[in-house]
Amino acid sequence: MMSRCRGAPSFGTDLINSAMIQPVPARHTVLIVEDDEQLRKMYRFALTVAGFRVREAADGLAALASLEHEPASLLILDLGLPDMSGQDLVKEIAAQAHTCNVPILVVTGSTQNLDQLDVECVLRKPVSPDILVQAVVKCLASHASDAGID
Questions:
Q1: What are phi and psi of 26, to 5 degrees?
Q2: How far are the Cα atoms of 33, 74, 137 from residue 104, in angstroms, in the given order?
Q3: Quick one: which of 149, 126, 119 has its CA closest to 12?
Q4: Rounded distance between C-alpha atoms, residue 148 and residue 70, angstroms
């Protein structure tokens, strides 16, 4: 996988290799970009209980505005958004210096091959709250490890 930012590390998509996941400090902010309100609520609840700060966006334009206002530690992204595709949002995030290093966890019901999508982590819907939290923790840990962040 090519990195979205020149010189930035790339990350694997193998998310769930172990059953034991350590909690992540609450300093991490996750931006959920999902047009389905019920899924956003479920994701928000699970991540909040796990200790994350959570912001939400129902579409790509709202996500870009949110990232412009305040950075996120990780983006959870549905590919089927109403105003711009998730793929287009990934490209827009990659094009901006202040967002190109934000790891992206795609959660999608799409059956298409996602190997060409330049993201760190991928989960296929349906996703349980526990698996979502585990994937977020793994994706953040992988990002920190590859970036040399402790």
A1: -65, -5
A2: 10, 6, 12
A3: 119
A4: 23
Q: Which two tokens stand for residue 87?
A: 């793929």
Amino acid at 47: L
Give the tens place of pLDDT for each residue, 20-58: 445 555 579 999 999 999 999 999 999 999 999 999 999
Q: Which two structure tokens, joined as six digits, stand for 90?
A: 């990934």
Report CA-CA distances (Å) from 121 to 35, 65, 69, 79, 94: 19, 23, 24, 13, 15
The CA distance from 38 to 96, in Å, is 30
Residue type at 64 in one-letter notation: L
Three-state SS for 121?
A: strand
Domains by residue range for the chain, with CATH: 29-145 (3.40.50.2300)
